[in-house]
Amino acid sequence: MLNFPDTVNEAVAGIRDGSTVMIGGFGNAGQPFELIDALMDCGARDLTVVNNNAGQGDQGLALLIKEGRVKKMICSFPRQSDSWHFDAKFRAGEIELELVPQGNLAERIRAAGAGIGGFFTPTGYGTMLAEGKETRILDGRGQVFETPIHADVALIKALTADGKGNLVYRKTARNFGPIMAAAAQHTIVQVSRIVPTGDLDPETIVTPGIYVNSIVKVA
Amino acid sequence: MSVQSNDRAGIHAGIQTADKPLGRDDLARLVARDITPGSFVNLGIGQPTLVSNYLEPEQNITLHTENGMLGMGPEATGDQIDGDLINAGKIPVTELPGASYFHHADSFAIMRGGHLDICVLGAFQVSATGDLANWHTGAPDAIPAVGGAMDLATGAKDVFVMMTLLTREGVSKLVESCSYPLTGIGCVTRIYTDKAVFLTGPDGVQVRETFGCTLDELQAMVPVPLKAASAAGS
Prior knowledge:
The complex is a heterodimer of chains A (219) and B (234). Chain A is α/β, with parallel strands linked by helices. Chain A has helices at residues 8-12, 33-42, 61-66, 84-91, 102-114, 177-183; strands at residues 20-23, 47-50, 70-75, 96-99, 119-121, 135-138, 141-146, 151-157, 160-162, 167-168, 184-191, 193-195, 214-217.
């Protein structure tokens, strides 16, 4: 049942220790900072976090990592010029890393939302990121078997929601939002505005409300 | 060949030479000029991004960025800067008329489904058979980050590499077989370096152009057999 919590803290209150949490965003674009701050406040720990990166600077996911809440990162690009909190935890052996080629990350998330049990892809074939995985020659190309990534919760950011939970995004801030919304058991969305049902043109809706559980408006 | 190069004098005679090594911008200009009009192109982070500075509007090139956009415009400045509109390097960019946005799985389906004509990537090493190593030095203390490199390397119809031919220590980055961890196998079709342009494929490594050296001098720097490109191969 779709709900509209009044605050981000109320929205994330059900997230438990040990959860797998997908967090939208590519760099800072589309990163749901207010929901991440609320996740910090709620105290959940031993989290497995799925995101393209592993935090930038001293905000959002980077702080969650700094505070030791994240047990494992599943991501494609952890190392950046300002990923110092992840770097420190990784070098100290205090965080586990599953490094995934970005297209495999996106498709594994999509597969989870689409009920697909796995897929073969040429990406990564013959590289160390395919070590230990099943391979086949298909259509004359070496391909690697990849499995879906499911999550307990997704925290994403959209521009606008309506009363049915339908979402539209803004520019490249869309990135992982739509596929994470579908892949998680419980999807929490922060938006800049909520409009009455019927005000969004059905032809322009990007994420249908069936994938959304909670919507919270942030300033 | 999805790439045109017949607009440059001397190409039809096979190997072409220039009298000095190319700088980064000259190399970017050369790559830009070699991209077939109408192509859909992805430019990797770093040196390949320079190519966008030299694409001519008449070429009608559409740039793809992995974070969900076709029709990417130049880097944003001043009031144009919008945190929701960035490129793969997280730099604010602009949108051109006809741009489109899509989610990450669709963006990588564009790469993985073979829809991109060309991607241009940097490299640590390229092998004689077109294997690419560009994501990880393999050093024990290095934190690896792969991003979209493996998807681009295996998905684009043509994979161009831009790099200096030699490391700072003077060692060739064009090698018999890569010692760094691989990004993709047999994927590179063309290597643009400061000293030469190489074509890689089943026939071995061919040299299309040299810059500031002869073919013999180039051969002395590179541990793989080189031959001059035939006119048809250019």
